[in-house]
Specification:
It contains four helices and nine strands. By secondary structure, it is an alpha+beta fold. InterPro entries: FAH, Fumarylacetoacetase_C_sf.
């Protein structure tokens, strides 16, 4: 369930998780408030990145565990994980579990200076609130 909320500029993955406009996966504390009372760990943040290598290689998907840290390559390790965030999120728990295993192993890592960071969401399915979507606005522009 991937939903966009233009008011908050966030993308909901499910009721427990969302990605903000910077591509950072966060927990929705509204739904996890009672759950956190019984947990001894604090929620962790990780940043999903779409990027290309400086030598203009293909687009890849990776995770950065803290600001400025190395990037753990996800899509470069296995072809079964897509190289863009939209398809990754549509894959749900299956892709998330694969990503967790890849992150735990951290076999393929690149430095942040070795890549060109791309927009968090490339090739979106829909672009909302563009004036040309509305016929009356199109007529005004002529």
């Amino acid at each position: 369930m991937l939903q966009s909320s233009s008011l908050k500029n966030i993308f909901y993955i499910n009721r427990n998780n969302f990605i903000n406009c910077k591509g950072v996966l966060q927990r929705n504390t509204e739904f996890n408030r009672n759950k956190r009372l019984f947990s001894s760990t604090s929620p962790s943040k990780m940043r999903f990145l779409q990027y290309t290598c400086r030598n203009n290689g293909p687009q890849r998907l990776g995770v950065q565990l803290s600001q400025g840290s190395d990037i753990i390559e996800i899509s470069a390790v296995t072809a079964s994980v897509p190289n863009n965030l939209v398809d990754f999120l549509k894959g749900g728990d299956e892709y998330m579990e694969k990503a967790k295993r890849i992150i735990a192993e951290a076999k393929s890592v690149v430095g942040p200076n070795e890549v060109n960071i791309l927009a968090p969401l490339t090739k979106p399915d829909k672009i909302l609130c563009v004036g040309l979507n509305y016929k009356s606005h199109c007529d005004e522009q002529k």
